[in-house]
Amino acid sequence: MSALFSSTGHGAPTAGAGRSDSAKEFEFTTRDFERVRTMIYRRAGIALADSKQEMVYSRLARRLRATGLASFAAYLDTLERNPDSGEWESFTNALTTNLTAFFREAHHFPLLAEHVAGRKEPVTIWCSASSTGEEPYSIAMTLCEAFGSLNPPARVIATDIDTNVLATGERGVYSVDRIERMEPERVKRFFLKGKGAQAGMVRVRDELRAMVTFKQLNLLSEHWPISGPFDAIFCRNVMIYFDKPTQGRILARFAPLMKPDGLLFAGHSENFLYVSDLFRLRGKTVYELADKGAASGIGHAATARKA
After folding, report:
1. CA nearest 230: which of 146, 157, 292, 160?
2. Does residue 44 contact residue 246 with C-beta atoms inside 8 Å?
3. Among residues 146, 111, 20, 120, which one has the least CA distance to residue 72?
4. Quick one: 121 and 40 in the same domain?
């Protein structure tokens, strides 16, 4: 694929229980929607609001077509009868919202650069909801700039529950409009421009891609395929899909994975102080451990809470 890329220049409510909307392709009752809500909450911790009924119908209707099933009831029955079925992955992927952009909530990245500047030991950042890769690559670019090198002593662990978006992130190929608001010098340094069949596309440079490791991770899983300690954790715009008890359990597991001076970055509409006594606000949607000196003991507290 590298031959195709070159250096860039500067440049309607649902029906009631037991009833369906006759205009819909598939029967979709209130009971079906409630089953979906229960199943995705148990599987991924996502709390679907009442207003998401049409979204659920639209996204899961594609799965009914793909599986050849004639109704939501039949589809959900099949899932429940087969808890280890690969269709659970497709079900979860379909209901996961992935809104992202390069350098989204831009005020976080100068803070990250300042946080890691001058460090001698290797730096490790966890991006816990990486979506299609724009966020972890933005982190990687920031680290390169902070260290003044395309090969800094740093790495980024990028995780997401959605396997489809992870594949996109790992590939590192995006339409050129995704970077149109980025500074030209940054584009020139970190992206290759598509040619021929890839015209209108850009690819993240190999040096940047080598810094980022993509892994599937469900924040509700008992075991996470990662290990700290992390200099920073990015958990932005994902907690809003969880209820507060779930948020609290996840935050309690974050704390022992962080270095004593580690930073936790949240989304602009998220506030972690209501659900955790382990963190304190350091800046705009940026948190630090409440008791840095007791970092090694936080793991015991987190384990006790989980139990």
Report:
1. 157
2. no
3. 20
4. no
Residue 258: closest CA among 306, 294, 207: 294
For 149, residues 6+ apart whose C-beta sits below 8 A from its C-beta are none
Query: Which residues span the domain enclosing 152?
Result: 108-306
One-letter amino acid at 212 equals V
Q: Is residue 279 part of a domain?
A: yes
Instruction: Give me 139's structure tokens.
Output: 């982190």
**Residue with structure tokens 């594609």?**
62
Catalytically active residues, by annotation: 59, 160
We report the CATH number of the domain holding residue 77 as 1.10.155.10
Strand pairing report for 123-127 and 230-235: parallel
Q: How far apart are CA 61 and CA 39, in angstroms?
A: 16
Domain match, 169 and 276 both: yes
For 225-286, the DSSP string reads: S----EEEEEE-SSGGGS-HHHHHHHHHHHGGGEEEEEEEEE-TT---TTT-SSEEEEETTE
Its pTM stands at 0.74
Backbone torsions φ then ψ of 81, nearest 5 degrees:
-80, -20
Q: What is the DSSP letter of 4?
A: G
Q: Is the dihedral of CA 132, 138, 141, 146 positive or negative?
A: negative
Q: ω before 13 within 30° of 0 (cis)?
A: no
User: Tens of pLDDT along the chain (307 residues)?
Assistant: 455 666 665 443 333 434 444 478 888 999 999 999 999 888 877 788 888 899 889 889 989 999 999 999 999 999 999 988 888 888 887 887 666 789 999 999 999 999 999 888 999 999 999 999 999 999 999 999 999 999 999 999 999 988 889 999 999 999 998 898 899 999 999 999 988 888 889 999 999 999 999 999 999 899 999 998 999 999 998 888 888 899 999 999 999 999 999 999 998 888 888 878 899 999 889 999 997 664 544 443 333 333 2
